[in-house]
Specification:
By secondary structure, the protein is α+β, with helices and mostly antiparallel strands. It has 1 helix and 8 strands.
């Protein structure tokens, strides 16, 4: 029985737990959101056997097998494409933001950077994309 107007201990602890959980959700949301692009929807890699998108040109001395390409998709139809050189430096060779449009019925995505479009396919149930040889009509 509580006579002094204080909350029972289990109610106080429950309220503190809820506040802690809400605080953690807020921190995680802020970390996952880039104010320039929105929330991260997914991170995929370009398959090693895929060719490179037309926007990426390799510097002298680099081969396709030495380069990894990551594609981060954001809300509001944005995509960030980053190409890195070989380990251990993993130097950034290309980093650009473009517009993206996903076609779920066909399992492909179009990404446009600097006015040039590339079509990417996700043919396997893995977080890998390939540059498609499909040509967009029109």
């Amino acid at each position: 029985m509580v006579l002094s107007g204080e909350q029972p201990a289990h109610i106080v602890r429950g309220g503190q737990l809820i506040a802690a959980v809400l605080g953690a959700v807020g921190i995680l949301s802020a970390a996952a959101c880039d104010p320039r692009y929105g929330f991260v929807e997914s991170n995929l890699e370009l398959a090693p056997e895929s060719g490179l998108p037309s926007w990426i040109s390799l510097p002298p001395g680099h081969l396709r097998k030495d380069v990894s390409v990551s594609i981060t998709f954001y809300t509001f139809d944005k995509a960030r494409v980053v190409a890195r050189g070989p380990a251990p430096e993993r130097k950034v060779l290309f980093d650009a933001i473009g517009l993206s449009h996903y076609f779920p019925d066909r399992s492909y995505t179009i990404i446009a950077i600097d006015g040039r479009e590339e079509i990417f396919e996700q043919a396997r149930a893995k977080p890998l994309l390939t540059v498609s040889d499909i040509k967009r009509a029109g």
